[in-house]
Amino acid sequence: MPKQAYTRTKPHLNIGTMGHVDHGKTTLTAAITKVLSDLGTGTFVPFDRIDRAPEEAARGITITVSHVEYETATRHYAHVDMPGHADYVKNMITGAAQLDGAILVVSAVDGVMPQTAEHVLLARQVGVRHIVVALNKADAGDPELTDLVELEVRELLTAQGYPGDELPVVRVSGLGALGGEPRWVDAVLELLAAVDRHVPVPERYLDAPFLLPVENTLTITGRGTVVTGAVERGTVHVGDRVAVLGAELETVVTGLETFGKPMAEGQAGDNVALLLRGVPRDAVRRGQVVAAPGSVTPGRRFAAEVYLLPAAEGGRRTPVATGYRPQFYLRTADVVGDIVLPDGGVALPGDRVGMTVTLGQAVPLEAGLGFAIREGGRTVGAGTVTEVLPD
Ligand SMILES: Nc1nc2c(ncn2[C@@H]2O[C@H](COP(=O)(O)OP(=O)(O)OP(=O)(O)O)[C@@H](O)[C@H]2O)c(=O)[nH]1
Ligand SMILES: [Mg+2]
């Protein structure tokens, strides 16, 4: 049976849940799909499907972000739920860079916790401009304490440059909505209405040349290699010629799908799978970029503004100096880099500093690109490219 084609009837936005471990991100994500599937505009994705992504695990691909899709009356959303352990931070930066808005999940019982603050900070760093707050577990929270938690969250958001006094804060119970309790089903609908209202349809760079950071790849025997990811800009169609930067090859797109459905045109913001003609197995990897030929030039050197996480936010305990060589996560790539601090200086955890970076390997660079700095398996900093420098 031919697959049903994806038809674009509503604006598409990318959102996601963030927040402290165990505050209920995955439960709320499942609850949203449940409530909308009961209304007929989505497919219920149960908790354990979101948390484990079983097919991906079976294919041996490391998936640390799972996507679900759903529709409200006015929008089509792709929603990412990220695992809530300390490794979350890397995913915030590599995965959340494409979020148009985020749902900050804060447990009404526990209030603002260290990772709540860290995720807001990183959302800011990677350019997530719009946040809606879900005060979750409202079924279990004392209403007066919940009022205090709301004040605390608004203050935190204001301190990080978000309109903390005005943005929507909705009291929900993911667990209650998942259980079909009318009060909490309504609360989830109220949360979605708040997202519809508060997160604007972003200006998409549809006219820009096509660019897709590769998140995952798989080989379909006899057909070729498939790459998946969110289109960062431009559009893509079957028959388009594309370059794979990192693999240094050019090929043609022979298949295009979103969530398993063929589509006529992939646009900036869409999550797509591209079938690439004649690309050898293992030639293409996560971290590479598929782009319109000649539209981007990989580089190795750039100037950046960086925030070094303080020890309390999981950062280093000791200073960094010129010559420090951590890993840089840019888009989906993970590359070693050498830093030079101004005046041969030293920077402390908690500092915001300007630096120049020389990567061990060229990747497509441009001003405004966000990145994470990691060392020994943990995130120690986050930054933004301010200027690309000649090699
Ligand atoms: N009372 C109550 N408990 C909830 C609610 N939502 C989630 N929980 C419980 O809180 C615990 C954590 O929920 P998860 O959805 O796994 O939280 P998470 O934020 O996705 O956790 P990580 O992915 O590990 O960061 C589970 O035991 C849930 O059943 C809620 O609305 N009310
Ligand atoms: Mg979770």
Summarize the structure.
With 391 residues, the protein is α+β, with helices and mostly antiparallel strands. The chain contains eight helices and 24 strands. It has helices spanning 25-39, 47-52, 54-58, 88-96, 114-126, 143-159, 174-178, 182-198, and strands at residues 12-18, 66-71, 76-81, 101-107, 131-136, 169-171, 211-213, 216-220, 224-230, 235-236, 241-245, 249-258, 261-262, 266-267, 271-276, 289-291, 298-308, 320-321, 327-330, 333-340, 346-347, 352-364, 370-375, 378-389.
What does this 3D model show about the protein?
The protein is α+β, with helices and mostly antiparallel strands and 391 residues long. Helix content is 22%, strand content 35%. It is built from 8 helices and 24 strands. It has helices spanning 25-39, 47-52, 54-58, 88-96, 114-126, 143-159, 174-178, 182-198; strands spanning 12-18, 66-71, 76-81, 101-107, 131-136, 169-171, 211-213, 216-220, 224-230, 235-236, 241-245, 249-258, 261-262, 266-267, 271-276, 289-291, 298-308, 320-321, 327-330, 333-340, 346-347, 352-364, 370-375, 378-389. Strands 7, 8, 9, 11, 12, 13, 15 and 16 form an 8-stranded antiparallel beta sheet that branches. The radius of gyration is 21 Å and the shape is globular. It binds guanosine-5'-triphosphate and magnesium ion. It comes from Streptomyces chisholmiae. Residues 10-203 form the Tr-type G domain. This is Elongation factor Tu. GTP hydrolase that promotes the GTP-dependent binding of aminoacyl-tRNA to the A-site of ribosomes during protein biosynthesis.
